[in-house]
Amino acid sequence: MEEGINLLEQIRSRFQCRDVDIRTYSPLTMAYIGDAIYDLVIRTVVVERGNRSANDLHRKTIQYVKAGAQAEMIEALSDMLTEEEAGIYRWGRNAKFYTKAKNASVGEYRRATGMEALMGYLYMTGRAERMLELIQEGIRRIGLEI
């Protein structure tokens, strides 16, 4: 990686992405990218903790990325969110859904989607440091130390 250039900037540069006002995206689009970046963070940490079978890695990762854990995490973080972050979370949580939750209640699924929207928003606005801070503290607060 080039010094001083983060992954998002490299992707935008290499693939010549156009500059778009992030506020024009839907909450489900933010949740879509947020789900992926949150999953990448968790998978990276799990892999960094030791070389294990893919099955073991998957079982460990699932503890953190399932909707129930995400819902619990965002609730535990509520006092840490700025006004803007809380608004983004609510925007994602209240989005009109076109899919049904598989292994979670509707409430958990909505809260998890709100958290994913927040993660996506933070990532897409270049605030990866804040995103990582929230993920780390959320994991700590729900007692799931990786």
Structure overview:
The protein is 66% helix and 0% strand. The protein contains 7 helices and no strands.
| Unreliable sequence segments | none
Please trace the helix and strand order, writing H or E for each element: HHHHHHH
What characteristic shape results from the CA principal axes? globular
Broad structural category: mainly alpha
How much beta, percentage-wise? Answer: under 5%
Helix content: 55-70%
**How big is the Rg?**
15 Å
Give me the number of helical elements: 7
Which features characterize this protein?
146 residues; mainly alpha; globular
How is the topology of this model organized?
Blueprint: H1 7-14, H2 27-48, H3 54-65, H4 67-76, H5 83-93, H6 106-124, H7 128-141
Helix pairs in contact: 2-3, 2-5, 2-6, 4-6, 5-6
Quick synopsis:
With 146 residues, the chain is mainly α.
